[in-house]
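We treat protein structure as text, and this decision shapes the records that our systems exchange. The tokens are whole numbers drawn from a learned vocabulary of local backbone shapes. One such record is reproduced below, unchanged from the form in which we store it:
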Amino acid sequence: MQATPDLFVIAIDGPAGAGKSTIGRALASRLGLQYLDTGAMYRAVTVAALRAAVPVEAEESVADLARRVNLEVSDRGVFVDGFDATVQVRSDEVNRAVSTVAANPAVRAEMVDRQRAWARERSGGVLEGRDIGSVVFPEAALKVYLTASARERAVRRAMETGGDVDEIAVSIETRDRKDRERADSPLTEATGAVVVDTTGRSVEDVLDQLLALLEGRR
């Protein structure tokens, strides 16, 4: 299935903790669109592998699992073959393994097909991840690359999880490096994307900027 320009898609990419989920949900709500956290899809596949005792390094086995697993990522939560994995997808165990799963080319191909199908069923939507504007929907109506300082991103995650800021900062920097260096669909600023630094900014401030950008393009 190919990406097409006839859908109203807003693509939000960026590293962990940059505000993609918060901004994506707020923007979708303001525009009356549906929202998809594509990162949760890779986390769901990771949960499926862990539950099936499939080593995440076993590329072919994980890819086969990704093609067969029934995933639901929605406002209801994250479900893996009917199992409620909403909490588990954010666990330390998944955090450690998801980069390996996300770097699997066959898994990415399967998830990209599912993401495009999701948008086609809804005639568009707000999708956030790490390769939405560069790979999944390069002709999106608006492509945004959110970023923030590593320290600020670590502080945000610590507030969410109650973890140690310094430990989270190291984890974030490691994830950033893996995402940027992977051979398939690396984390990068998509051509034509608007780069928005969210450091020290409120959600409403960033949201107003994106809505103004969208209005200008219309």
About this structure: The longest strand covers residues 8-13. Residues 9-34+124-211 form a domain with the Rossmann fold fold (CATH 3.40.50.300). The radius of gyration is 16 Å. The mean pLDDT is 93.
